[in-house]
Amino acid sequence: MSTRPQRFRTMAVTLFALALTVLNLLREETFAMADPLVQLGWEWRAERPLEQRVGLRLVKIEKEGGGLFGLGRSPSLGGSLPDAQRVQADVLAIDHPGQAIVGGKIAFRIPKVELRGASEGALVAVGIIGRSVVCLAPAPAEVTEDLLAGWLSEAPCP
Predict the structure, then answer these.
(1) CATH class, 36-154 region
(2) Is the sign of the CA dihedral 108, 112, 118, 121 positive or negative?
(3) What is the pLDDT of residues 8-20, one digit of tens each?
């Protein structure tokens, strides 16, 4: 067997492995347009001014797992939340440009008590500061998707 085809195969396999590695390292940037889901965290507001108010339709609410032996729910961990829920929602309205865009999707963690009784399918307003949701207010029954944008400015955000 000639060394030339063997070198070619070795070089081809090496370049392929390198390309896969680079693609794997850059996949978030490479495929950013394919996934419009914006991931946000949760913080309590602490009287800070809101950067953006967003009107949402809650698509999915699920209890967050606590990991191995429930260690993720330990109050001694900085990122733990009491009875944490994972929420996915469609963005229907915004008060001005920011983290969320109309037609996009957001996902965030929130303590169950802060959902204030909102369930899947409900219309809500959230306040955003930085990369965190800081409050959630369920829309009154008379607020429809068409009226949601107008209600955002009056939505309570404790």
Answers:
(1) mainly beta
(2) positive
(3) 888 888 878 777 6
